[in-house]
Amino acid sequence: MKKTAALLLLLSVLLSCNGQDAKITKVAYVQKLEYGLKGAVKEVTSYIYRVENEKIPVNNGNYIGKITMTLDSLGNVMTIHKLWDFDRNPSTKIDNAEFTSHFFGKGKDISFKETSRYSDGDLKEIEHKYVWSDDYNYTIITQDDNAHSTLITLDKEYQLSKSIFKGDNMQSVEEWETISKNNKIQEIKTKITQNLEGKTTVTYQIQAVQEYDKYGNPTVLYGYQNLSKEKVENVIYKEYKYYE
């Protein structure tokens, strides 16, 4: 369950989508498209901060999460490194967690090996593979584990639209709605429906973009935990490196 929460947050933090054009030109799938990244992105690092006493934190290293993704020049993901410092978040019962994924293959022929460690526990290594059912749906299959799976649905531009995680007597569904203007993200709404041991809960998360870099990629986002956006719960700072 703890790992599931981290993976769900990861999806929320990494998600960003471009606006819809009147005419959609068919392009070949590459992982970069899932996140709506603009330009020749080489690396993107996200720093997640918890807001305390209604004071917007600065990007000073006291984050509760750091996610770094590297890509090749074609837009294929090479590595994803996730570091969660849960000790800075009293709502969790573990100190920290670290995940590193190494990806292999290009285009739709993708597999990856993930290593993980919670607090001072043992290092675990799991292999995964993408299995496509059609152009816009694939399942992330875990080797030697038939109890867990993640079904991903993409829109017609290969951007993330829906995720269904199943395992450990639970199912979690995330659905995303992106509001864009002038080909820039304005806001991302996430609906999360969880069914745990027969009990269903529905929650919402909002990410509102505050600043962009010169390519139009979001650099500062405010996070809310309800549709009314009454209180900023977290701030995400994103830093990009580009191929020249």
Describe this structure in words.
This protein is mostly beta strands. The protein has one domain. It has 1 helix and 14 strands. It has one helix spanning 2-14; strands spanning 41-50, 65-71, 77-84, 97-104, 111-118, 124-134, 137-142, 145-154, 160-167, 170-181, 184-196, 199-212, 218-224, 234-242. A 14-stranded antiparallel barrel has the order 1-2-3-4-5-6-7-8-9-10-11-12-13-14. A hairpin with a 6-residue loop joins strand 4 (97-104) and strand 5. The longest helix has 13 residues, at 2-14. The N and C termini lie far apart (41 Å). Residues 4-8 and 16-24 have low confidence and may be disordered.
Describe, in short, the structure shown:
By secondary structure, the chain is mostly beta strands. Helix content is about 5%, strand content about 55%. A hairpin with a 5-residue loop joins β12 (about 200-210) and β13.
Could you name the key traits of this structure?
54% strand; 14 strands; mainly beta; 244 residues; 14-stranded antiparallel β-barrel; 5% helix
Helix percent reads: under 10%
DSSP helical segment count: 1
The helix/strand class is: mainly beta
Strand content: over 45%
Please trace the helix and strand order, writing H or E for each element: HEEEEEEEEEEEEEE
Low-confidence stretches: 4-8, 16-24
Q: Please tell me the total number of domains.
A: 1
Mean pLDDT: 87
Instruction: Trace the largest sheet across and list its strands.
Output: 1-2-3-4-5-6-7-8-9-10-11-12-13-14
The major pleated sheet works out as: 14 strands, antiparallel, barrel
Shape: globular
User: How many strands?
Assistant: 14
Distance between the termini: 41 Å
- CA radius of gyration is 17 Å
